Amino acid sequence: xxxxxxxxxxxxxxxxxxxxxxxxxxxxxxxxxxxxxxxxxxxxxxxxxxxxxxxxxxxxxxxxxxxxxxxxxxxxxxxxxxxxxxxxxxxxxxxxxxxxxxxxxxxxxxxxxxxxxxxxxxxxxxxxxxxxxxxxxxxxxxxxxxxxxxxxxxxxxxxxxxxxxxxxxxxxxxxxxxxxxxxxxxxxxxxxxxxxxxxxxxxxxxxx
Length: 208
Prior knowledge:
Blueprint: E1 3-7, H1 13-29, H2 44-56, E2 60-65, E3 68-76, H3 86-90, E4 92-100, H4 109-123, E5 128-133, H5 138-146, E6 150-154, E7 165-170, H6 176-179, E8 185-188, E9 191-194, E10 199-200
Parallel strand pairs: 4-5
Antiparallel strand pairs: 1-2, 1-10, 2-3, 3-4, 5-7, 6-7, 8-9
């Protein structure tokens, strides 16, 4: 199965919002309050504005399978206050809003998206990929552990949001030669990214 990564455009915003609503409903059926208003998740309107800003900044990516959107990820250098220290952010990229379409569940879309975050970190000469996960969603924590991430801590006391479980993975833990990212590059405000922002991740897997 070939998975293509491309930068998202404003035309993808509706798809990303649909994925968010789809996954929220699925989580609710499993007894999780992740991303719900009751659980202090962002209302969909605020989520859409946040993703729109990330798109404008070139930070949001779409995974496609046979031309169909299969997942999304946003990668930048920012985190909510109180989660990571300034020195932790200074040598990391941060993952946000990773969502896989349920139609493609179990096909390692999330693994490929995380590998792409690792590749972006390497291009920007950053040593870590870091993320925060919903504090009470232990199944999600286990997912990130299986994806090669290590649990750092539960953030606090300054951070009071619902997503405070911190995970990290070293950039050099991925085998990027196997992943097959393109070598030609251009420079943006994020650092160095592919000259062709579509990268084929069918050649290999993260080494975990």
